[in-house]
Specification:
By secondary structure, the protein is mainly alpha-helical. It has 11 helices and no strands. It is globular, with a radius of gyration of 18 Å. The protein folds into 2 domains: 57 residues, Tetracycline Repressor, domain 2; 135 residues, no CATH class. The two termini are 25 Å apart. α1 crosses α7 and α9 packs antiparallel against α11.
Length: 202
């Protein structure tokens, strides 16, 4: 039952963030919209900031198709990999899905730098956990490259307005640079058959 309450709280938070700046959202209106009692809220969350951080980090996992692209792209042909990334980035620019609308709310004037950083951290943590990556096995160069890939990928999402401003040639050039970074970092560890997008590990 609590999982259902959490989802209602998250949905209420995102709907309010589309309507007004984060700084103007109150616990009272969040609870009213979610239909959750104040006692239940404070039993699980310290304050609104605590809930907002959890909601944003949870939302980051919905962009797993981006991490799947990074970890499963064609290593045998950098041009093919570049085209794959370019196609994906083009599709992001055209999306009007729920996750795209929530991302837009997060990076709009209604959001905050704290929430953007929570999204970045959530995206990285989910990638590491879901793809079963052991960063301790990475050498220092690989760690830097992996952080670069994570930072670059989330920057693409949280600067969607800039991404949309690129013409076809610029988007393809950007994809080529990103493909090179991914190849240098992710190639050290390929995902197993149970880690492909859409499959749960047994």
């Amino acid at each position: 039952m609590w999982e259902g309450c959490v989802q209602r709280l998250y949905d209420a938070f995102w709907s309010l963030l589309e309507e007004k700046p984060y700084a103007r959202i109150s616990v009272s209106e969040l609870l009213e919209r979610a239909g959750v009692s104040r006692g239940d809220f404070y039993y699980h969350y310290k304050n609104l900031l605590d809930l907002a951080k959890c909601a944003v980090e949870d939302e980051a996992k919905n962009w797993d198709d981006l991490t799947a692209l990074f970890l499963n792209f064609d290593e045998s042909d950098i041009e093919v990999a570049t085209d794959q990334i370019c196609y994906y980035l083009s599709s992001i620019c055209r999306q009007n899905s729920l996750k795209a609308r929530r991302l837009s709310a997060l990076i709009s004037p209604h959001g905050s730098m704290y929430l953007v950083e929570a999204f970045r951290e959530g995206f990285k943590n989910y990638t590491v956990r879901y793809r079963n990556l052991n960063l301790e096995e990475f050498n220092n160069l690989q760690k830097i490259l992996f952080e670069g890939v994570m930072g670059f990928s989330t920057s693409l999402l949280v600067h969607l307005d800039l991404l949309k401003s690129l013409d076809r040639a610029e988007l393809h050039a950007l994809s080529g640079h990103l493909a090179s970074m991914i190849y240098a970092s992710i190639k050290i560890r390929r995902p197993g058959p149970q880690e492909i997008l859409g499959f749960e590990k047994s």
